[in-house]
């Protein structure tokens, strides 16, 4: 530990931007998209690397324990003590400091851009990285975004030839999906947004292969009549017994 502290000491603090590899992680929309009232920008990672020569753009690795390779570098630095061993140790620690996190954060699916070469600028005490629009590929509006912001996002996309989508929270599809300006349905597949292979003929929500309607739209009028006729709450309410039943049930369950 003494060797580690003496050779590593303080690591450089580089300006860092954090991204997510997925636009359908609901907690990310809640934390960073103002509970779906904000928006998401999609970036081309290769374009970022090409424009900012030398910056590191890498996926975060999630671990329960530190990487064992650091121990090997530390052993060499402590036992052999050659300059290259100290260099390798510091580089390994630096990389894992920026590109590894505990597995409790796995849901973020994080990717980071680390600016080691001062591309970012100091603006009123904040480090700002000015990214050219050519590195942006699409705009995704949240499903609760206000109308003025929604309209502004559409204009931004049109003016810069970007794809535009709005996130949708469906009734039966388990994950957020998207619709473009023409109302076409899209889903997030293998690392990209792609047209949904099958959609409900009524509401255009994504469905499984072989289904023409989503579960909600498949409910018929006769289904509604049958469900209502078999609902015991309706029977109790008809005889003015529903209120008393609920009170008695709450007493028994201890919910009051």
Describe this structure in words.
It is a single chain. By secondary structure, the chain is of the alpha+beta class. Among the domains are: 132 residues, no CATH class; 33 residues, no CATH class. The strands form 4 sheets. It has a 6-stranded mixed sheet. A 3-stranded antiparallel sheet has the order 1-6-3, with helices on one face. Strand 12 and strand 13 form a beta hairpin. The chain starts with a helix and ends with a helix. The mean pLDDT is 92.
**Structural class by helix and strand composition:** alpha+beta
User: Rounded to an integer, what's the Rg over CA atoms?
Assistant: 27 Å
Total strands: 13
Number of helices: 9
Instruction: Kindly report how far apart the N and C termini lie.
Output: 57 Å
Helix content: 25-40%
Q: Which labels suit this protein?
A:
three-stranded antiparallel sheet, 256 residues, alpha+beta
What is the compact description of this entry?
The chain is built from 9 helices and 13 strands. It is of the alpha+beta class. Among the domains are: 2-133, no CATH class; 221-253, no CATH class.
Blueprint (SSEs and pairs):
Elements: H1 2-8, E1 16-20, H2 26-32, E2 39-43, H3 45-51, E3 56-59, E4 61-63, H4 68-79, H5 83-99, E5 100-102, E6 110-114, E7 121-123, E8 126-128, E9 136-141, H6 147-159, E10 163-168, E11 177-179, E12 185-188, E13 193-195, H7 221-229, H8 232-238, H9 242-253
Parallel strand pairs: 4-5, 9-10
Antiparallel strand pairs: 1-6, 2-9, 3-6, 7-8, 10-11, 11-12, 12-13
Helix pairs in contact: 4-5
